[in-house]
C-alpha cells in the first residue's frame, strides 16, 4: 500500500500542492486527471523525491518517509521502491534499449550481468521490442522509446510505477501501441499511478480515478462513479470540457 | 637570404629527440588539467558554498592572464615559497632539488584546468536534465548518475572543444623553452644557434607541430564518429 499524507509543495511563493492525501492499494491502477498546472506532475515527482515536498509523508508499506526528516538514504530507498515513466521518455541516450533496461538492474540492484540481461530481454519482449534490443533511442520512434521507458521501469520490479502523461508527447498514431502496453501490465496486477489526459483510457483501465485542481484532490472514486455521477461541480466542468476537446480531436 | 632545404630535414630529425618531452608536457598538463577542470566545473554547477566562488575566481584569473605569466609566477614564486616553508620548519630540503620540469607541469596543469573547466562545464550543462532525473528515478546515487549517465554524454558533446584545448596546450608547451625545458621549440632554438640556420630550424619545428596537430585532429574525428554512434538518428 502506498500512502501519501498531507503532501505540500511550493515553488517560491506559489503553493502548487496544498496538502494531498492519497492511498493506493496493492494492484490499484490510479488515474490522476486535472487541468494543466493543477500540480499532477509535481505530485508524482514528490513521490520519488525528484521534488522534495515541503510538508507531508510518503509511505510505501512499512517504509515511511517524512519530508521534514528525509535523509539521503531514505530518498535512495524510496527511489529503489518506485519507478517512473516520463512524458518525454528520458531514455539514456548513449545506451541501447537493452542497456537502458539493464542499467538499474546492474548498477542499482547489483544483479549479475547475465541475470540482468535475461530480465531486461524479458521486459523488452513484454513491451513488444524483442527485436530492437541493440538499437539506440535515436533510432526508435517515440512510441518505441516510450515502450523502452516502460520496460526500464517494469524490469526493476518496483512496488509502484509512476507514469507522467506517457502518451502526450507522441504522434496520435503512436498513442495506441503505448496505451496497449500499459493496459497489459495493468492487467498483471502491477500497482501504478498514471497522470493522463486520455479520458477513455482512464475510464477503461483505472481502478480508481482522482481529479485534481489547483493543488488539491477535488474528488476521487471508482471510474464509473467519477465519470458517470461526479459529485463536484469542478469535476463536471472539467469532464465536459475534456470530452468536448476529445470529440473535436477525432 | 639563402634557404638550405636539406637542413630543414636535418633539423627535423634532430627535433624528434625533443618530441617525447613536448608530448609528455602536453599529456600531463591536459590530464591533470582535466581532473582539476572536472572538480572546478562540479563545484560551480552544484554551487558549493564558498568553494564555487574560489573556483570562479581561479577560472577568471587564469583565463584573464597569459599562460607565460602563469609559468613565471610558478617558476619564480613557488621555489621561494617552498624555501620559506622549509626554512621555517628547519628542514634541509630546498627547491633547488626539484627539477624544473615539475614547475612547468604544475603551471601548465593550472592553466589547462581553468580552460578545461569551462569546456567541461558547458558540456555537462548541455546534457538534458531529464537524463539525470531518469538516473535518480531508477535509484542511482549522484556519483553513479554523473559518472555513468551525464559525463559520458557531456564528453561526447565536448569532444571538439577538448580537442581544441589539447591542441592549444600542445602549442602552449613551447613556452617551456623560456625556463630551459628542452622540448621541440627549445631544441629548434639550439639547432638554429649552433648552425646559424634559424629559418630552416624553425620551419622544421613548425612542420613537426603541424604534423602532431593534424594527427590529433584526425584521431579526435575518428573518436567522435565512434562515440557519437548513438546520435545518428533516422528512425529505423
Ligand atoms: N520547477 C518548478 N519551478 C517553478 N514552478 C514550477 C516548477 N514545476 C512546476 N511549477 C509550477 O507548478 C504548477 C504545477 O505544475 P505541474 O507541472 O505539476 O502541473 P500539471 O498538473 O502536471 O500540468 P500539465 O497538465 O500541464 O502537465 C504550475 O503552475 C507550474 O508552473
Ligand atoms: Mg504535467
UniProtKB/TrEMBL annotation, chain A:
A cellular-component GO term for this protein: plasma membrane
Entries under InterPro entries matching the protein: AAA+_ATPase, ABC_ATPase_HisP-typ, ABC_transporter-like_ATP-bd, ABC_transporter-like_CS, MetN_ABC_transporter-like, P-loop_NTPase
Sorted UniProt keywords: ATP-binding, Cell membrane, Membrane, Nucleotide-binding, Transport
Membrane topology: Peripheral membrane protein
Pfam families: ABC_tran
Coiled-coil spans in chain: none
Localization: Cell membrane
Molecular function GO labels: ABC-type amino acid transporter activity; ATP binding; ATP hydrolysis activity
Residue stretches making up the ABC transporter domain: 2-239
Name the UniProt record assigns to this protein: Amino acid ABC transporter ATP-binding protein
Automatic annotation (TrEMBL), chain B:
Gene Ontology MF annotations: transmembrane transporter activity
Keyword annotations of the record: Cell membrane, Membrane, Transmembrane, Transmembrane helix, Transport
Source domain of life: Bacteria
Principal cellular location given in the protein's record: membrane
Swiss-Prot/TrEMBL GO biological process terms: amino acid transport
Transmembrane segments: 12-43, 55-76, 96-116, 166-186, 198-216
One Pfam family from the record: BPD_transp_1
Domain called ABC transmembrane type-1: residue spans: 19-220
InterPro entries: AA_ABC_transptr_permease_3TM (IPR010065), ArtM/GltK/GlnP/TcyL/YhdX-like (IPR043429), MetI-like (IPR000515), MetI-like_sf (IPR035906)
Membrane topology: Multi-pass membrane protein
Protein's cellular compartments: Cell membrane
Any one GO CC term of the record: ATP-binding cassette (ABC) transporter complex
Family to which the UniProt record says this protein belongs: Belongs to the binding-protein-dependent transport system permease family.
PANTHER family reported in the protein's UniProt record: L-CYSTINE TRANSPORT SYSTEM PERMEASE PROTEIN TCYM, MEMBRANE COMPONENT OF AMINO ACID ABC TRANSPORTER
Classification via NCBIfam families: HEQRo_perm_3TM (TIGR01726)
UniProt protein name: Amino acid ABC transporter permease
Organism in which the protein naturally occurs: Paenibacillus roseus
